[in-house]
Design a protein that fits this description.
single chain, 164 residues, alpha+beta, 4-stranded antiparallel β-sheet, two-stranded parallel ribbon
Length: 164
């Protein structure tokens, strides 16, 4: 990962993101971020903090703008969480016989810029890459209202991609 900007973070959290699809699936960071108690990526002035303990995530700017990516992973040794449970939650959700990573979560709060209105352009970023999944969970936590543009994009996207 060359640098961590907001759009890269948004896509990374969806999963199945890789620049080398012949070498790996792009699922490692996704699943690792779900397993730990706390998972942090810090790069080029952005820090993504995933607190699985409270089921929330945060994105903040940092003063340290160094090259590279620092990864922090913490797991509570007394945790009742099991790796197989995480895999089960995100694989084979469509009910077909083919096993695979087919579910993702989209944290809509990461797409909001300076307010509550979510536009068509923000909707395009939210929907980007979701065609790879059979089950998509849209998380609207801390989003009191969405714009008409987002709703219209969802409707059009659904009509195009449903039952593909």
């Amino acid at each position: 990962m060359q640098y961590l900007n907001k759009e890269a973070i948004q896509n990374l959290l969806k999963g199945r993101l890789t620049t080398l699809p012949k070498l790996h699936s792009g699922e490692g960071i996704f699943f690792t971020s779900k397993v730990g108690s706390i998972f942090t990526l810090d790069s080029f002035g952005k820090e993504l903090i995933i607190y699985n303990i409270i089921n929330d995530l945060f994105l903040k700017n940092t003063e340290d703008i160094t090259q590279g990516t620092k990864v922090f992973f913490e797991i509570n040794t007394e945790s009742q969480s099991r790796l197989n449970d995480v895999f089960r939650e995100y694989t084979n959700q469509s009910g077909d016989d083919e096993l695979g990573f087919d579910k993702t979560d989209v944290y809509v709060k990461l797409y909001v810029k300076g307010g509550v209105h979510i536009s068509r352009s923000q909707a395009r970023r939210i929907l980007s890459g979701l065609e790879k999944f059979n089950v998509v969970v849209m998380d609207y936590d801390k989003i009191p209202m969405i714009g008409q543009g987002l709703l219209m994009k969802y409707i059009v996207y659904s009509l195009i991609n449903i039952q593909k």
